[in-house]
């Protein structure tokens, strides 16, 4: 089992979205969700970390981060949903889908 006491949210997410993963690593994805639910500030920290990973220039890392986001939406409850619904997070996602303008 990948679960280790004292693992930070960032550590769980880095393992879950490692670009060298050959496929989604559900052990770390669920570990990340569990850690969010354990920590008082878990949802706020997790959303910030996820926004950064989703914007990764490494496509596989970004895709894995979207899978983690989906798992969190299913497993982390109302506190997490409230953070995802804030403009701060939504604006970060808009950056991903907006066309890049070069002047």
Taken in chain order, the helices and strands follow as: HHHHHH
- CATH architecture, please? Alpha Horseshoe
Q: Roughly what is the average pLDDT, rounded to an integer?
A: 92
Number of domains: 1
Mind describing the biggest β-sheet?
none
Count of DSSP helices? 6
How large is the share of residues in beta strands? under 5%
> At the third CATH level, what is the topology name?
Serine Threonine Protein Phosphatase 5, Tetratricopeptide repeat
Topology, element by element:
Elements: H1 9-16, H2 26-38, H3 42-54, H4 59-75, H5 77-84, H6 87-97
Helix pairs in contact: 1-2, 2-3, 2-4, 3-4, 3-5, 3-6
Region (Disordered): 1-20
GO biological process, one term: intracellular protein transport
Organism: Nannospalax galili (Northern Israeli blind subterranean mole rat)
